[in-house]
Write a structure and sequence with these properties.
This protein is of the alpha+beta class. It contains eight helices and four strands. Strands 2-1-3-4 form a four-stranded mixed β-sheet, covered by helices on one side. Strand 1, helix 1 and strand 2 (28-32) form a beta-alpha-beta unit. The relative contact order is 0.14.
């Protein structure tokens, strides 16, 4: 049994969108939970088994999978054959994994340090900065309308999400702006973004 723990109006909407894109609604039960919000509202929900009280969390028969990229990789591997990820074991799968890990290893930290107004050589040497994120996305989008080429994938869903959540961070780059708009216009994103 697959149970997805989701907090409405949180970044776990990305998993809802993936479930919608992959037509997994009959396979995954979604359970809304409360979380502590960055503005201090909310609370840790005892119904949420996440060890830190966060979302997203996927419970597969008592095995807990957390962190958005891990949940996305897990679902696209558990249900192969969708257009949301290449076949596991292929070179394209390796590229897919690279982008999914790059999000948490570089993109999100670089953007969050910019939002927080923090700057330090260690940050820039480790995660780079928002300009490096922009350059990497721009380079990928020069090759096709989507990050991995001709097809929308979980990579696009994940990587566009900071710009959907915080639109003022969207770079003034036509390739990136148009890509974000295409991602946001997807029916699954429109249906789940505020859910």
């Amino acid at each position: 049994m697959l149970t997805f723990y989701h907090a409405p109006h949180s970044r776990s909407w990305r998993i809802l969108a993936l479930i919608e894109e992959m037509s997994l609604q009959d396979w995954v039960t979604t359970r809304p939970v409360n979380i502590v919000r960055s503005d201090g509202s909310g609370a840790v929900d005892p119904a949420n088994p996440h060890p830190e009280g966060k979302v997203p969390l996927l419970d597969h028969d008592g095995h807990l999978i957390s962190e958005t990229p891990a949940v996305m990789i897990y679902l696209t591997t558990l249900f192969p054959g969708s257009s949301m990820a290449p076949a596991p074991g292929t070179p394209e799968w390796g590229v897919f994994l690279t982008w999914m890990c790059w999000y948490t290893a570089a993109m999100e930290p670089a953007l969050l340090t910019e939002v927080a107004g923090l700057s330090h050589p260690v940050f820039h040497g480790t995660w780079r900065d928002a300009q490096a994120v922009t350059a990497r996305l721009h380079s990928a989008l020069q090759a096709g309308p989507w990050i991995m080429g001709d097809s929308y994938s979980a990579v696009d869903l994940l990587l566009h999400s900071p710009y959907a959540w915080l639109p003022h961070l969207t770079p003034d780059d036509p390739l990136i702006r148009d890509w974000v708009a295409r991602c946001q216009a997807r029916p699954a994103n429109l249906a789940t973004y505020t859910a």
